[in-house]
Specification:
The protein has 485 residues and is of the alpha/beta class. The chain has helices spanning 4-16, 25-29, 44-54, 89-98, 135-145, 170-185, 212-222, 289-301, 321-333, and strands at residues 56-60, 103-109, 149-155, 192-196, 227-230, 241-242, 247-250, 265-270, 305-310, 348-349, 360-362, 391-410, 424-432, 437-444, 449-468, 477-481. It has nine helices and 16 strands.
Length: 485
């Protein structure tokens, strides 16, 4: 077994290495599909900083469900049911300004699939109404006139278009890309696109069925400075940017930004009880000012997190008087204090994990606990060495030579009361160069989510060596990725 001293020596060598030899590159190039770097006019870190500096925004859930007292619209409803009689997006913008908000986000397509812009695709939309109206246009123009930045929300799940788990086709992916093209070319600069219903436990549409990297590149090629943020905090560790430029939490679903979080983050929550307006909300209770400001906004901002508060328009297309009044009260209680502290750079994962589902071996195989629990794609399961052992290793066989430039591991710290802090003293990642093991990256006690960008190499075998503390360490997931750029 490798000693702790040897692990630390290898980790120090990894820290000083500047070039890693790319063995077997030609073999890999023939056997993999090359993703292209997404076009970006401004550095991602700069865009993330600009976004968190906004601090506070308005979520506007307004779609077919508004007219049905539902949270998901009925996908069989006729387009004419969406019928705002007094649409006033200038009022929305004025209310946002009164609360000292700096940006907004509108639900252009929710889970039922109805589009509140006149899409040129065959999908159900306001174009098919007897009196067409472009809500996205009205919203974007009003918010820009008020000096507010513009974000859009788009659901990957679409019940009207039968875009569901096991029912995704290339034609349906093309439909989504065409709709995103309309939204990202017809309404000016979009700061953030929030996606939903994608790799969620309730939609089950995976990042393979609707390929994340393909959509990511599509968005960035249309709007290089638009952040793509998926509501996936229920599936991925809070400390890493997995498939999202900004870590996005749905607070209503119990997703919490951890204390001390340093990733750029977004937390969304409702002012009313639900996301879409219900007729009972006119006289219903709203979140009080102290809750919004003292319990949510100020503490979240300390964690590099932007809060977006949902203020749903009514069936008339206006914010109700009680919502307008509450937003004014919030604005009297909170003033924008300026930029947040500087973010540090984080690797954004946008490609599939090359290690998932591949043959994997380990230093030991405890009863009922196999190393496959460390590369099953589930961050809630984990492998650990045999009882009493504090050191160990995991080795993944990628089955062919693969190029990669990112390695990661997730230690389930804080997921159970019995595991409150890291049990790892030191670690290192290695790859096999056909002759020997070469160090990729390493260090001492890691963060629970540890992601290393390394010089791109090619190999069939990757391993993680661990030296633990007094208790045996657990590894929930090991990652190997080839990130473009």
């Amino acid at each position: 077994m490798t000693t702790r001293r040897e692990l630390l020596r290898f980790a120090a060598q990894a820290a000083t290495a500047t070039v890693l030899t790319d063995h077997g590159a030609s073999a890999t190039a023939e056997n993999r599909v090359q993703s292209t770097p997404a076009r970006r006019d401004r550095p991602l870190l700069e865009l993330q900083q600009r976004f968190v500096d906004l601090r506070f925004g308005m979520f506007l859930h307004f779609n077919m469900a508004t007219f049905q007292d539902r949270e998901w619209g009925d996908p069989t409803s006729p387009p004419d049911l969406f019928h705002p009689t007094d649409l006033d997006t200038d009022q929305w913008a004025a209310a946002a300004r009164s609360a000292n908000m700096t940006w907004g986000c509108l639900t252009c397509r929710h889970h039922d699939g109805f589009c509140i812009w006149p899409t040129g695709t065959k999908a159900a939309s306001v174009r098919q109404k007897s009196s067409p109206i472009d809500v996205v246009r009205a919203y974007a123009d009003s918010f820009r006139r008020a000096g507010l930045r513009v974000g859009l929300y788009y659901s990957i799940l679409s019940l009207r278009d039968d875009i569901r788990h096991f029912n995704v086709t290339s034609a349906k992916i093309e439909l989504m890309k065409n709709q995103l093209s309309e939204l990202l070319t017809g309404y000016g600069e979009i700061d953030i696109l929030i996606t939903d219903g994608w790799d969620a436990p309730w939609s089950r549409i995976t990042y393979t069925e609707v390929p994340y990297r393909e959509i990511y590149e599509h968005v960035k090629n249309l709007q290089p400075n638009c952040l793509l943020c998926d509501l996936n905090a229920s599936q991925y560790p809070t400390g890493g940017l997995y498939y999202s430029d900004v870590k996005t939490f749905e607070q209503n679903a119990g997703q919490k930004v951890p204390e001390g979080s340093d990733v750029p983050a977004l937390s969304c929550v409702t002012l009313t009880d639900n996301w879409f307006w219900k007729q009972r909300d006119l006289n219903g209770g709203l979140k009080d000012v102290a809750t919004v400001v003292d319990e949510w906004l100020v503490p979240l901002n300390r964690r590099h997190c932007n809060l977006i508060l949902n203020a749903p328009p009514t069936r008339e297309g206006r914010l109700s008087p009680n919502v307008v009044s509450r937003l004014e009260e919030i604005g009297r209680a909170w003033k924008h204090p300026g930029p947040m502290p500087e973010l540090r750079e984080h690797v954004v994962i946008t490609t599939p994990n090359l290690a998932t589902g591949k043959p994997i071996h380990a230093s030991s195989y405890p009863d009922t606990v196999g190393p496959d629990l460390a590369n099953d794609g589930d961050f809630r399961s984990s492998w650990h060495p045999d009882e009493g052992q504090t050191s160990g290793w995991l080795e993944v066989d990628l089955e062919k030579y693969e190029a990669f430039n990112v390695v990661s591991m997730f230690e389930p710290v804080g997921t159970e009361n019995s595991y409150p802090q890291s049990r790892i003293r030191s670690y290192r990642f290695e790859y096999w160069n056909r002759a020997s093991w070469i160090t990729l990256a390493g260090g001492e006690t890691p963060t629970p989510t540890t992601i290393h960008r390394v010089a791109r190499v090619s190999s069939q075998r990757v391993r993680l060596l661990l030296e633990g503390s007094a208790e045996m360490p657990h590894i929930a997931e090991i990652g190997v990725y080839d990130e473009p750029g």
